[in-house]
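The following record pairs a protein chain with its ligand, uridine-diphosphate-N-acetylglucosamine.
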Amino acid sequence: YRLILVAGARPNFMKIAPLMHVLRNHQKIKPYLVHTGQHYDEKMSDLFFRQLDIPEPDINLEVGSASHAVQTALIMERFEKVCLNVKPHMVMVVGDVNSTAACTLVAAKLHIPTAHYEAGLRSRDRSMPEEINRLVTDAISDYFFTTSVDADENLINEGIPQKKIYMMGNLMIDSLYEHLKKAESLNHAIQTLDGKKTVQLDKTLPDGGYGIMTFHRPSNVDEPETLAKLVNGWGTISKDVPLLFPIHPRTVKNLKKFGLYDILASYDSIYLTEPVGYLEFIYFIRHSAFALTDSGGIQEETTALNIPCLTIRPSTERPVTIWEGSNKLITVDDIEKEVRLILKGKGKTGKTPKFWDGQTARRIVDILEDIFYV
Ligand code: UD1
Ligand code: UDP
């Protein structure tokens, strides 16, 4: 059975890695890995393939960056050719990026059964491009692999039959548990962007006494006023606690465009770096006091590691990280207050959602076997 697996952007790689590992020597299911090329920088893509031990993609569509419509259209055009050549028995997509929705649309029109891992998540905020991708993907997928029960409920409310929904747990947490030990042994140094400081992993930042930050949501970083307020908030809190900030390409571009980069760089206790590798990042989360972020995946990783997470967003598609985990939604105005609470010892929970146990890929492949063999 030929199974096309699609990955395009950074958060997809840690989701496909455990599936590729379980399928590596599978007798009957042969994965065919398609990289759309949505992310292409060494530090947004190749580095993850190496660190997560993902085999070279069978094909890279090399679509690169463009507007939503152009990027989606380019993925569709190129992916259609792949499907016609490979004639897969199923296409499996993960997450909620443009590559996810584009490839599902192509497969559905070619009558190829499609499976969506991370189905059913809903922020109910349609100004997020990811929410549109989630809605489109789930409207036309055939099989739904979910990470938590709220996602099952969302799908059922949208009319998806229960028998097509499989609550499997979280592939990101498979990757996390698989790589933590290796990450723990890291002790090399990372250079800051200005080249003036080095961050030695096991020495520079106080263990349990710094914040790890990432920001890249258009709603936070695409408008000059919003981004300026964030820069100010980060600067203020950095006077109390050092912050490590590996900057996403979208964010660095906008900081420079809006004339905010030099202000951010002037704060002594904010360590600005390029995006860091997966192993480095999970090391940094594990040893931090808290994460300050707008990332989807980091809300989940912090929950699994019981590290307090402050998410600067009005909503989340991952509410289980709030109900059961260590995540909290806040506004930019609350940063100072919330960080102080964490530094006083608040924000840990000790609960991990059901099936976030490192066995999700195995469960999914068991279901795929059932689907293919019956
Ligand atoms: C994309 C996803 C988002 C996900 C994020 C993870 C969509 C709509 N968005 O957002 O859901 O959370 O990835 O990181 O699919 N760029 C580079 N190098 C790269 C990739 C991008 O410099 O390797 C720059 C380009 O200037 C590009 C910008 O970043 O225009 C945005 O990239 P894009 O893939 O469109 O969206 P992300 O913000 O990365
Ligand atoms: N990540 C990383 N290096 C970084 C920032 C993030 O390895 O510099 C990892 C992080 O551990 C998580 C994933 O990237 O596994 C999250 O991706 P991202 O925040 O880009 O996307 P989102 O989850 O918001 O869609």
